[in-house]
Amino acid sequence: MHEAANRRALAGEPVAYEWSVDTPDGLTHYLTSLSPLYAADGQVNGIVGVSRDVAEIKQAQQRLQETERRMATLLGNLPGMAYRSHNDPDWTMELVSEGCGRLTGYTAEDLIGNRRLSYGDLIHPDDRGRVYDDIQRAVTRRKAFRLEYRIMTAVGQERWVWEQGSPVLDESGRVVALEGFVTDITDRIEAEEALRVSEARYRSIFRIAASLMISVDREGIIRDCNERSCDLLGYAPDELIGRSVGTLIHPDDLRESRQVLGRILAEGMVLNHEMCLIHKDGHTIIASASCSAFADGQDEGIYAICIIDDLTERKRLEEQLRQAHKMEAVGRLAGTIAHDFNNLLMVINGYGQMIYDDMAPDDPARHEMAEMLAAGKRATSITGQLLVFSRKNRAEIKVIALNDVLEGVARMLERLLGEDVRLDLALAEDLAPVRTDPRHMEQVIMNLAANARDAMPTGGAFIIETANVQLDEVQAAQHVGLDPGRYVMLTVSDTGTGIEPDVLAHLFEPFFTTKGEGSGTGLGLSTVYAIVKESQGEIYVYSERDKGTTFRIYLPAVQESVSRQVAASSTSLPRGDETILVIEDQDQVRRLVVRVLGQLGYHVLAAGNADEAEEICRATDDLRLVLADVVMPDVSGPQIVARLREMRPQLRIVYMSGYTEQTISRHMTLTPDTPLVQKPFTVEHLHRQVRRALDAAD
User: Fold this and answer.
1) CATH code for position 597
2) Which of 317, 556, 625, 670 is 20 to 30 A distant from 272 in Cα terms?
3) Rounded CA separation 564/103 (Å)
4) Residue 260 and residue 306 in one domain
5) Closest by alpha carbon to 347, among 591, 628, 600, 599?
6) Running along the chain, 698 residues long, what does each successive block of 10 average in pLDDT?
């Protein structure tokens, strides 16, 4: 480095460069400046140099970068939006935190400088004047302000927000900006409204109580009840009054319930008791009873008055919550193993494919190598399913014609189902488009077909139907999770053995399977469930023993045009000759990628860390593209890229990663246009991404 700098200075060029040296106190950085010395005849006859210790400057820069990173992380994690704006009726934004997207549905770029719309446009028209006036009063008094008002999000949703801010003054006391924080309080407002309604309801308790209320005498005979009792238990008032309360309690809970009632009447205690009641039609109700004793002033009899609440729905929701926690735990597991597992798979599959391609068609080991590659693909598929059901992969959502996907997968289904299972398609001709990932939707059909095949060991029929449906409020209420509106209904049925009721309760749980060891991963239906939810849809299942099973999937219909994608050419991959820098900390993966790109004609350089990458970039004038891993030790791929682009702004970038989208988003902002190759990737996919980036540069 020093010799090269000296030569440049002796050639008449002023030179400035940084270098470092290890000392007992650590790494010390120097900035050296060289200038040529000229003789009387104008020829360079020497150089003069000055070296300055810039270690403290470097440390200060690093501290500043770390502070900026922490501040960005802090602002990004806030449950709301921090801002700095002009004091004008549009609230023209100068700075907006990342929470803007979660709060409003718009990006910071949309709002800063009113590029797409102003923040004032988001404020509900009925609130805008009041909000502006309140802020101006606070600004006039040079005081902070706190406001509650409504905004309209990008999807047209009305949300309540709470804002706290204050004017920013210059040295002369003039207001130069507003700074503050806005957070979503819709849940609180809705809770307050629900509380108001609830209080109004309980104020009319003497007219109609919200809870089941009964009074019971010492003999356990019901002496009085309210209307809610009749509604919950299915009896008329005259059927309940005079009836033994024991006839309403499930036999498994009867003994304990009688003991509790005896203690209440004998000791005058207030006790809470959970039990199961029996409806008139025989179904079970999970209930919580709060009972206390009271004396009837007329005949001095002692009664127990019980306020009973139906817990059936709450218990169902608690079970759903436990299921959600289980899904979340497995999702975290998927994210943890994805990176290392995908790196290993990429090396195994990549080198395996190279060996296979180099084998002669009659090579006796070619069949074994093909089996190894098939196993690698199956392992990749399992990893993909883990990421799908954990909903942490990068879905390619687009507007599609669902019938096209179904017709395209039909040929594969025929092979999967076998000759003894008939495939029937009944597809609506005027089917509305839907927004989903077509590859994932193919996986839904294949997973359902695989389960149907196993349920029809002696043959049967597998039927796929599509239809447009319009759900009104009544119909939507009958389908938990759906709002009224237009949907595309995909119905998948089989004539197999059906599903047992106890199995139905666990059907979509990850790793739950009724198949024998080695026959299933237990991810098929959990993957189906995750894909449907990813597409903002819902899935319902109905099954009868020995009659078959029907899955109904509802996907929101859209009015947008179907996305059409030109099919990739099946010809051999085009070669390139550009210079590419591969940045990857895993040695095996780095060597594989270098070899793959080298075989395609590229001049490939490799770096395992930020320092190596910067040194190569600085020394390589014809460097065209950087292929960088996202998550790396010490310095991430996006951070390295930012440094390299300071030296060479025209560099084209392609990222690669084996981590989930959630993890990647901690290191960089992901958009649908971000050039990202998900590990493990194929040679073709890698090359097309690289080629697309290079051609875009041209």
Assistant:
1) 3.40.50.2300
2) 317
3) 32
4) yes
5) 591
6) 79 82 71 80 82 71 67 65 91 89 91 92 94 93 94 94 93 91 92 78 56 83 84 88 90 88 79 88 88 65 80 78 66 63 78 83 85 77 60 70 88 82 91 89 87 89 93 79 90 90 72 54 73 88 88 91 55 78 90 89 94 93 93 89 92 85 74 78 84 80
CB atoms within 10 A of CB 473: 8
Distances (CA, A) of 31 to 35, 52, 61, 137, 213: 13, 5, 15, 54, 85
One domain, residues 405 and 540: yes
Does residue 196 fall inside a structural domain? Answer: no
Q: Which residues pair with 159 in a beta bridge?
A: 151
Q: Are residues 34 and 95 in the same domain?
A: no
Q: How far apart are CA 105 and CA 91, in angstroms?
A: 17
Judge whether 83 lies within some domain: yes
Instruction: Please say whether the beta carbons of 212 and 232 come within 8 A.
Output: yes
Rounded distance, CA 99 to CA 457, Å?
Answer: 53
Number of domains in the chain: 5
CB-CB contact of 553 with 532 (8 Å): yes
pTM above 0.85, yes or no: no
Q: Is residue 316 part of a domain?
A: no
Q: Which domain holds residue 46?
A: 2-64
pLDDT at residue 571, rounded to an integer? 46
Query: Of 310, 340, 358, which residue sits at a domain end?
Result: 310
What is the distance between the alpha carbons of residues 86 and 177, in angstroms, rounded to a whole number? 5
**Chain-centre distance for alpha carbon 63:** 32
DSSP alpha helix (H) spans, 78-161:
99-104, 108-111, 119-122, 125-140
423 and 520 in a single domain? The answer is yes
CB 303 within 8 A of CB 216: yes
Q: For residues 494 and 458, what is the distance between their CA atoms, to the nearest angstrom?
A: 13
pLDDT at 51: 75
pLDDT given for residue 305 in this prediction: 79
